[in-house]
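Project standup — Tuesday

K.O.: blocked on the structure for the chain from last sprint. Re-posting the sequence here as requested.
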Amino acid sequence: MARNAEFSRRLLLSVDAVGYGRGDDQRHRAIQTGLLAVMERAAVAAGLDRSVWVKQQAGDGELAILPADQSEPVIVDDFVRELTTALTQHNEDLRDEVRLRLRLAVHFGAAAPAANGFAGKGVIVVSRLVDCAQIKSALQALPTADLAVILSAQVYSDVVVPRYTSHTATSFREVLVRNKEFTEAAYLLVPGHDILAVELEATGGDDRSSADESRARTGQSGTEPSTAGAQPTSSTVINGNVNMSHGVIGMVWNQ
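H.V.: unblocked you, prediction finished:
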């Protein structure tokens, strides 16, 4: 068989439940049952068929490789919205300490079946994103949130920035993900909350400038449209002598 026979680029999802390790056996069962239930409910409501997803279960989480014809905007927009609704309904009558809260990562990249699961750079990327410090910190800082979503830079720039979804680009927060050998920019969203106002866990450098460095290394262009807090500047260079006795040089810039 040719070495590239199973190579493909697919839409990849990784979901993980918060607080699984702190629970007892009964809590583990409840999380696993609830996770599958809300994922199925959200998929059906978004017009998706989870039976054709290739899934690798992990008790408190799931890695899914979606069919080649799966629409990225439907996942980023419809599925995220319906998953938020499904979690709200699931948690409606539960005490805060037993609510089901999820982290969801979305990436488009290489994936192929392997002897013990899946192989490919795309699988590594989506796995590092769902487990990164920033998405965990966001849910810690927002205790009423049930879902945090992180998109790879590729998905954000290809789907959100060109406005293929109802999400505005400025509703996401650019972060630099450093997880094991992985260092890349990504985009964080907490539905129903202002992620830009949240103080996230420090990650060894300013997210904005560090993400710029990451894009420079990978050849990506900047995709973050937000310029909040930036001050307009202007400079003029004059070569040669200027003779204007009794004159005044000034500039007025009306924003």
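K.O.: great, moving the ticket to review. Strands lie at 9-17, 54-57, 61-65, 102-110, 112-114, 117-119, 147-152, 173-179, 182-189. Helices lie at 25-45, 72-91, 121-130, 133-141, 153-160, 207-218.
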